[in-house]
Design brief:
By secondary structure, the chain is mainly α. Helix content is 70%, strand content 0%. The radius of gyration is 19 Å and the shape is elongated. Pfam families: TetR_C_11 (PF16859), TetR_N (PF00440).
Length: 203
Amino acid sequence: MNAGEVEPGTVRPGGRTARVRESVLRAAGDALVEQGFDRLDLADVARRAEVGKTTVYRRWSTTAGLVADLLSDMAEQSVPRTDTGSLDEDLKANARLVVRTLTDARQGPLFAAVIAAATCDARTAEALHRFYQVRVAEWAGCVDAAVERGELPAGTDAHEVIRAVSAPLYYRLLASGDPLDESVADRAAETAAVAARAGVYVN
């Protein structure tokens, strides 16, 4: 994509078109959960959302553009980071939020479907990467604050610490199939905190 171009589906609507966007994105999420990316169809999404096919085709153009907008919406709706004044508690809150999301009856399968789609579609992969960049950047602030408080060594890579918290949780979702619960979340947070204090993530 050239400079100045915009991925279809990434322009934010205003006014009454926001209701159409909400309905279409909800329908797209339902279709992804039920059928997967390879069977995602704009006409089917329009039928589910009860909007005209031309509206969907004109606004989103492609299934990749629709998924990109879905991921942008998910980032917009995500819970802001916690600020407890303690690295351990902040990382624990982050890990528990990830577990709640991944074990949610709708959000868990939706994330799995989007991640699967990203393995075979470059634009979906780019949208997924943008989603996680937004979320990691949001939570990196708690690590930066811990450095300022003297809890962590100077030069700690905040983004790497946050990635270290969620990585084992996504591994359980996508690879091992092992249970995901608060105890697993807390262990992931504690492990990342211990490694960060030991200077593992210092650049």
